[in-house]
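Much of our argument rests on the idea that a fold can be written as discrete symbols. Part of our work consisted of pairing the sequence of a single chain with a tokenised description of its backbone. No coordinates are needed to read the tokens, only the vocabulary itself. The record that follows shows the chain in one-letter code together with its fold in token form.
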Amino acid sequence: MAVNKKTGAMKSPVKMGKMIVKGLVVRYSHLLKPDLQYGSGHSVTVEVNKELAKLQKELIAQTGIKLINGLKDDEGTKLASFKNKIHSNEGVERFPKIFDTEGQYTNDCPFGGDVVNVVIKPKVWDMNGTQSISCYLEQVQWVKKNSGDAVTFEVINDKADEVSFANDNLEDDKLPF
């Protein structure tokens, strides 16, 4: 274990820095505006891919702690939520660290179906004798936009269905009015 349960002191400090996880599909996000209903600040919920699953196993092996906060199962799909309350607590409405593929700040925001890379910072918590790992959202890089392709309006190119009132061959006596 990383923490001595009797004294509460770290036995062997586990140093965990920022980590990059690539190719995550966004399920939903609160990056344009913090989630005020639950008070969780800015967050992004993604589908767990092989790279994230491997990282979670490494965190469990490194710390000896089996509980990782923010994980859930949605109809057979494993999801992970990464949150950050720092900016929303300071009154910042939009999550400030969203980048495009070139590493430049962007005003766009990823939504459900988009592919992102995230920078997270894991931290070990000991709350009332129960240890857990929380992974905090540091940065988001928008890799591929898929959210806008879900619904489109059909473009009608067939002119045969159009109605025209420009017929000059109408005789006035054949009109019913």
The chain has two helices and seven strands. The CA atoms of residues 8 and 127 lie 11 Å apart. The chain has one domain: 19-148.
